[in-house]
UniProtKB/TrEMBL annotation, chain A:
The lineage of its organism: Bacteria, Pseudomonadati, Bacteroidota, Sphingobacteriia, Sphingobacteriales. Residues 21-255 form the AB hydrolase-1 domain. This is Sigma-B regulation protein RsbQ. It comes from Pedobacter cryoconitis. Belongs to the AB hydrolase superfamily. PANTHER family: ESTERASE-RELATED. It comes from the Bacteria. Pfam families: Abhydrolase_6.
Automatic annotation (TrEMBL), chain B:
It comes from Pedobacter cryoconitis. Gene3D superfamilies: 1.10.287.130, Histidine kinase-like ATPase, C-terminal domain, PAS domain. One of its GO terms (cellular component) is membrane. Residues 13-58 form the PAS domain. GO terms for biological process: osmosensory signaling via phosphorelay pathway. This is histidine kinase.
Length: 262, 377
């Protein structure tokens, strides 16, 4: 299977310096569409869907491969190698921020900078560590995904309908956005919310920018501070934006924070 | 209506949207773009168990149970931002008393002319009954899938067992056969000759059984019967099969009526096997006092092979399952065989694009194999 179509890799922009965007759990590469236009003039933009999300090849989803972050990390490195990328600026949201750190650990020669948007090293509270959730709350999420066949499959129906007032999003968005197979969503949720990546933070040698929202129930401020403390070469920026997706709710603030850092 | 003096004058309340929203049977919430509650109707407050003052200014996601809250932040919130709306999402409310309520949620975001978000509106529908129904369906599906999986595993195991067994039986049988052949030459007394003959006859029968078992496994394990199709003269093939069976059943009469002049495109070994199964079947089950008749002919564009025997007719209920595997006469359990012979014969017929049929009445029983042939002059 060709890596490019497996991960629905999309390349745009007129620059040469590669900027790779990785979406988080629950969505696809369309999440970045308010951010990428600001960088298209000066960078080569690489967008992709994780296998199982968006327009990726669902046949390439093997539960054994994607049972942990390694499978996804392997894909990121394969995309970078396939496109002969070097000195990548990697921008990862949520769980993909951790994939960025893991990829940089495995193939440090490929990466120049990591930009971690609403990252979390581990979602579950553990002693002094505040992850934001108790184990039973995460179990409740996994159980609700287990039983919520409506949430994933049925949100598809209205997406096919016309989208008045938001025509700037384009047609292709309506039939693919956030498309997720329920069974895959379940396993991806498990991987996302049960992975503890705290131990890899301190060994990361690549400089990183942490973008932390000021009121994010998924990744609370303590988590951003923890990651900053453990990563030697990191800078922490607390955004005014609230929620878990500043690239959607406050794209201008997110863009200027990234530009200021670069 | 107000002109009708008999109608009570309720048009004020009827046209009052405030009242309509407050006393609707579904819940309504409006939030600012940050997700903080601006308005919430009485029905929803009643479900939640809160007062309005408790909730105004609070984050809407705080009303959701944790699973739904995470789902909202990671999936629904992006949907609202990018798509503008979502519909029919199953979620759970977290009520003041700590219990949860299953709901369906619709939501949309309203923007101003500059595409800046103004507010978010959510409609909440109670879905308790529906959830129970869905849960029942879900469990039924899970149970059915489990049962199916178990059955499939059992079936595969069984068929693999048969295939391995069949294969492993062949080697010792080969040794018995060649031993018997060697003994034929040195056997001097009539008694010895008769014993060696019996060994050979039984070996042949056993070989047939094993071939049938292995073919059965092959068909059932998904590979199907493979054919090696060639244009062949069918007469010597048929005569060879009959000859072998005559040696095995020297006391019986087998007649052959042959009317095929052309070659037939078929797998000669498979046709031999089919005929051998049919004739052996006729010899075993037919009346021992009557001959077994074999007719081979071309009728219209079909090649026909008919094997008939006399004796008691096959009972009607047995006819229905005659070509199914492992069916044999319940009335005569002493009869040897697994009941695979006719099944395999039918499979061979199918693989040739033909079929195998049976007629049975007081005058006798006939098995008719027909396959289409394309005669080139």
């Amino acid at each position: 299977m060709d890596v490019i179509s497996r991960n629905n890799v999309v390349i745009k922009g007129s620059g040469t310096s590669p900027m790779m965007f990785a979406h988080g759990f629950g969505c696809d590469q369309n999440m970045w569409r308010f951010i990428t236009p600001a960088f298209e003039d000066s960078y080569q933009i690489i967008l992709f869907d994780h296998v199982g999300a968006g327009k990726s090849d669902l046949k390439a989803y093997h539960p054994a491969k994607y049972k942990d972050l390694d499978g996804y990390t392997q894909d990121i490195i394969e995309i970078a190698e396939k496109l002969n990328l070097e000195d990548i600026i990697f921008i990862g949201h949520s769980v993909s921020a951790m994939m960025g750190i893991l990829s940089a650990e495995k193939a440090p020669h490929l990466f120049k900078t990591l930009i971690l948007v609403s990252p979390s090293a581990s979602y579950i509270n553990d002693g002094d560590y505040t992850g934001g959730f108790s184990k039973s709350e995460i179990d409740e999420l996994l159980e609700s995904l287990n039983t919520n066949h409506m949430g994933w499959s049925m949100t598809m129906a209205p997406l096919i309908m016309a989208n008045p007032g938001r025509s700037e999003l384009g047609e292709e968005l309506t039939d693919s956005f956030c498309r997720t197979d329920p069974a895959i969503a379940q396993q991806f949720a498990r991987v996302t919310f049960l992975t503890d990546s705290r131990s890899v933070l301190s060994t990361c040698t690549i400089p990183a920018l942490i973008l932390q929202c000021s009121d994010d129930i998924i990744a609370p401020i303590e988590v951003g501070e923890y990651i900053h403390e453990k990563m030697d070469q990191s800078k922490l920026v607390i955004l005014e934006a609230t929620g878990h997706c500043p690239h959607l709710s406050a794209p201008e603030e997110t863009i200027s924070a990234i530009k200021a850092y670069l | 209506m107000s002109s009708d003096p008999k109608e009570p004058n309720n048009s004020g309340l009827e046209n009052n949207f405030e009242d309509f929203l407050e006393h609707s049977l579904s819940g309504y919430i409006s939030t600012n773009p940050r997700g903080e509650i601006i308005r919430i109707n009485s029905k929803l407050l009643e479900w939640l168990g809160y007062n309005k003052e408790d909730l105004i200014g609070k984050r809407m996601t705080g009303l959701l149970a944790m699973g739904s809250r995470i789902f909202y932040e990671t999936h629904l919130s992006p949907l609202l931002k990018l798509h503008g709306s979502f519909e029919e999402v199953a979620a759970e409310l977290l009520l003041k008393d700590g219990s949860k309520l299953h709901i369906l949620l619709n939501g949309y975001i309203r923007n101003d002319e500059n595409n800046k978000p103004l507010f978010i509106r959510l409609n909440v529908y109670k879905a308790t009954e529906r959830k129970v129904y869905e849960e029942n369906l879900r469990h039924a599906v899970i149970d059915a899938e489990k049962t199916l999986l178990k059955e499939r595993e059992m079936a595969t195991l069984r068929e693999q067992f048969i295939a391995v067994l069949g294969h492993d039986l062949r080697n010792p049988l080969g040794a018995i056969k060649s031993g018997a052949s060697l003994l034929t030459r040195s056997a001097s007394s009539d008694r010895d000759k008769s014993i060696v003959g019996m060994i050979k006859k039984s070996s042949l029968r056993m070989e047939e059984l094993i071939a049938n078992v292995m073919d059965f496994a092959r068909v059932r394990l998904g590979g199907g019967l493979s054919l090696d199709l060639k244009d062949v003269f069918i007469e010597p093939i048929i005569l060879h099969v009959i000859e072998e069976l005559r040696i095995t059943f020297p006391e019986r009469i087998v007649t052959v009526d042959f009317e095929v002049k052309k070659t037939i495109n078929c797998d000669a070994d498979r046709i031999s096997q089919l005929l051998s199964n049919l004739v052996a079947n006729a010899l075993t089950h037919g009346s021992p006092n009557e001959p077994v008749k074999v007719i081979a002919r071309i009728a219209l564009n079909y090649f026909e092979l008919i094997v008939s025997n006399g004796g008691k007719p096959i009972p009607e209920d047995a006819l229905e399952t005659l070509f199914e595997p492992f069916t044999r006469e319940a009335s005569s359990p002493s009869q040897q065989g697994l009941g695979l012979g006719l099944y395999i014969a039918a499979q061979i017929a199918n693989a040739h694009g033909g079929n195998l049929a049976v007629t049975s009445n007081t005058t006798g029983t006939s098995f008719i194999f027909r396959m289409p042939v394309y005669i080139i002059d």
